[in-house]
Amino acid sequence: MAEALNQQFPCAQCGADLRYSVGTDHLACDYCGHENIIDIKHTSIQELDFRKGVEDQLSSEQIETTEVAKCRTCGAQVQFEANIHADNCPFCDSVLVTDTGAHRHFKPAGILPFAVPQKDAQHMLSDWLGSRWFAPSGLKKYARAGQELNGIYTPYWTFDADTASAYQGQRGDVYYVDRYVTVMTDKGPRRQLQRIPQVRWTRVSGRVRRFFDDVLVTASKALPKQAADALEPWDLHALVPYTKSYLAGFRAEGYTIDLRDGFAAARGEMDLQIRRDVRFDIGGDQQRVDIVDTEFGDVTFKHVLLPLWIAAYRYRDRTYRFAINGRSGRIFGERPYSIWKIVAAVVFGAIAMLILLATLYASGALDQALH
Question: By three-state DSSP, how is residue 10 classified?
């Protein structure tokens, strides 16, 4: 039987649902105050073999099937409380009916628990929204209303790899030659001796090696790469072994970028670093990299869940997202612009300039400046 993504932990004293108490290691009851300590497994987080993962050769212990609701607008796969049958998608604010479906996936290996409380996140969001110039009035009202944020664990992949790269390229060494050149002076053209830089190119080849540890890429199509990049860095050293208790009172998103595509994105990041290594290895003043052939060995991966506070705002049929890193408080926000406010600012600016010019002209300062 499929296991629901949302996790409920009844209070031993009153039977109400416990929630993870942000920034702590326990669950708390909002009604009677009872607390349960989260039993954290003091084990290392297991890396999984990438080849076995893409060939579906991992043990059944690494796989689970959950029930999720898929948003037809942004593609997010999210959980809902057991007694809720319709809601809005936390990523795009579209109406989402919870017609659940099975999602077979790798179990999360690690999780970063929330560290920023919801009230603090709401203050951060309100301050950010309230400080946006040229924002529509509706956005200001949205900020003042203290719109509730959705706490959601969003999926990421991490990859480790040992790489060896053979390269061919050219090393450029700058040298100088003295030449007479014609330059224009106040007295007309004249010949002048100058040192002219030249580049001597030499063909080179070599090998570089690098071990990559925990290259992080998003596994969510609902979270744009621009947002994912803006929310970094993450304190991955604080990852703890995945425990369902941390999901109490929160939602979790299933990954929608599969393992192969995740590694393709991670490899793009690795290739950029490898080319930087190649340029450093070539040396000289300038470098040209012609060919880089990289072998990847001992590739491993983890599926991890990272905490986000999410809100979505709809303005003129377009959705604007706000996301807050649930560990550091870093903010990513999209915002609309009020055309009327921009036009008004331009008009007032023009009027202010005309008034200033009129004042200067009346005082005679403008006439003196022109003559």
Answer: strand
Please tell me the pTM assigned to this model.
Answer: 0.79
Contact 32, 15 (CB under 8 A): no
Q: Residue 264: helix, strand or coil by DSSP?
A: helix
3-state secondary structure of 98: coil
Q: Which residues of 148-187 are buried (b: 16+ CB within 10 A; e: fewer)?
A: ebbbbbbbbbbbbbebebebebbbbeeeeeeeeeeeeeee
CA–CA gap between residue 371 and residue 367 (Å, rounded): 6
Tell me the percentage of the chain whose pLDDT exceeds 70.
Answer: 77
The chain-wide mean pLDDT, for the chain, equals 82
CA angle (367, 368, 369) in 5-degree steps: 90
Report which of 155, 78, 70, 149 is spatially closest to residue 116, judged by C-alpha positions: 149
Pairing verdict, β 286-315 and 77-78 = unpaired
Q: Omega before 224 cis (within 30°)?
A: no
Tell which residue, 68, 62, 56, has the closest CA to residue 102: 68
Burial-class residue 36 by CB neighbours within 10 Å (0-12, 13-18, 19+): middle
Q: Three-state SS string across 211-258, please?
A: EEEEEEEECCCCCCHHHHHHHCCCCHHHCEECCHHHHCCCEEEECCCC
- Span 115-140, mean pLDDT? 74
Three-state SS at 93: coil
DSSP string, 34-55: -EEE-----SPPPPEEHHHHHT
CA 246 to chain centre: 21
Give the domain ranges of the chain. Answer: 3-166+205-337, 169-204, 341-371
Please, what's the b/e burial string for 267-305 (b: 16 or more CB within 10 A of its CB; e: otherwise)?
A: beebeeebbebbbebbebeebeeeebebebeebbbbbbb
Residue 121 region by backbone torsions, left for phi larger than 0, else alpha for psi between -120 and 50, else beta: alpha
Distance CA 217, CA 205 (A): 31
Backbone dihedral angles phi then psi of residue 231, each to the nearest 5 degrees: -85, -10
Each residue of 348-357: pLDDT tens digit?
666 777 777 6
Q: How many CA atoms lie within 13 A of 49 on its CB side?
A: 7
